[in-house]
Amino acid sequence: MPIPKQTKEEMFSVAYCHAVGACAGLNCGQDMRDFGLDGSFSSVSQRKDGHFSPDGLRIDYQAKSTSSFEFDGDFVVYDLEVKNYRDLIVTDISAPRILILYLLPKNESNWMIHKEKEVIFRHGAYWYSLRGMADTTNTSTIRIRIPKRQVFTSTELNRLFSIVKRGDFL
Prior knowledge:
The chain has helices at 5-23, 82-89, 154-166; strands at residues 27-30, 39-46, 52-66, 70-72, 75-81, 97-103, 112-114, 119-121, 124-128, 141-147. It is of the alpha+beta class.
């Protein structure tokens, strides 16, 4: 019996995050318990003896995917669950948190294309930092607008780590 579509969407978005993290040269972790985050990216440094070890820089993420999205000018519009919104707006945390939203084709058979010499993830993902945004009185969802320029790629993830390394907020 197949798993529910929502579970497949969640698994796909986390798999994409891991693929991007691997291409960026980062360590990817997935939380064993779901306390509002799906995982983290962490950087490693090569020591003088040639071994690699964590250097303490980390970005946590909540991964979402949807085939129900819309564009409004230069923004991706998405209705995020209030619980997830509140997990992402907090400021009293040691590692920054981002939302990664993967946009899926409506037809599941188009999510990924397998060919002999390539695998193609269809559509793509965007990232967004909700740090410090105001709480909401909504009880179900809150509409967010993610700038389309914030495409989640390995190059962009490395740029985000440069920002974190400088001590700046995302």
